[in-house]
Amino acid sequence: MVNRSNRTGSVYQEKNGRWIAALTLTPDLFGKRRIKRKVAKSKSLAKKALTELIVENSKCTLSMRSNETVAEFSERWLSEILPLRGLKPSTLSNYQQMIHYYIQPNLGTKRLSDLKSQNILNLVNALKDRNLSTNTMRRARSILHNMLETAVEEDILPKNPVTRSSFIKKSVREETRVQKSYSNIEVTQALKVLSGSAYEGPFRLMVYLGLRIGEVIALRWDQVQIEDRELWVTRTEAHIAKLLGDETWTVERVEGTTKNNRKRMLYLTVDQVEFLKRHRKAQGHLKFKYGKDWNPGRHVFVTENGTPYAANNIRVGLKKILTRNGLRWIRLHDLRHTAGFLAVEAGVGIEDVQDMLGHASIQITKDVYVGHVQAGSDRAVRTLENYIKAGYQPAVIPATITRR
Length: 404
Fold this sequence. Notes:
alpha+beta; 9 strands; elongated; hpI Integrase, Chain A; DNA polymerase, domain 1; 14 helices; about 50% helix
């Protein structure tokens, strides 16, 4: 016996005598039909239950009961949902690592539909007890929020419990990994000690052109137009971790587009052109020495064996040479920041710095270089005032003639 109360809900009696209120929900992300049911003792109570289901659904507070655990859902999310979003392999790898190391150990056995904001707070406290950085904890929280949004879309959760949890604030005493950029004097000193070494080129492209390390190790000679004095940044490469079925990790090199998929052309100065000419000539000698199979990918920077550099190769090599010569060491990404900071210090407009660094929006550039942006704003105010004053000539009042 079926009683249709509206186009998406029904009330019916099973063979065992139970009355069922059933409401058809929107299909899940894969188009699978979903039905929310409630058991009642009588037909009238089933009709009442159906009305309650319809009201809950209209208020977006209705959820499907699921026995799926957080660990099970996260594996399904990683394998079925994320690949549909067109994320970069490095981003997928980061999601996988964060879930594997930080989320699953703390919430993995918890039933997904039972998650509450208190569970999120417990997770954050557990991560704090491991002395993780605030940025790492924020990243884990953000990924969990992203994952649970899918659970809300599938009506497994009525609301995202992460949204209701407090944002993680950075401790006053917490040290940041970001280090002070090199000054122009430090850059000059570094170039002197790196002259002729295998790491001079990567250093130059990061501090003079603002390239990311992934863009440096991916650079090929077809992107360098020496005659036109142009360098095209079109791709990036990285070594990423990948979880295997036996719970072990492997590392593989992947190639992808640049961040934000933005290609950019950078101007090469005379100095950079001369360096690249010498570097290409030196590579030609090595190719003649080792044969045509040396550097088959035509990477601009390779080891003596002709294999492409990994970011860690350059990090270790640079650190060894610079610290041995008394120079302080900063992260590779801070070398890129050096390019941006020195450009703004030199008076380059923030929009031009954005273009050079390949930032998706001007706000990103302002956020990163906020101190220098303020200095540029102060300089603009002083320059404008001086310009206005220079154009203002007060009227000359003739001296009074005294008649005698």
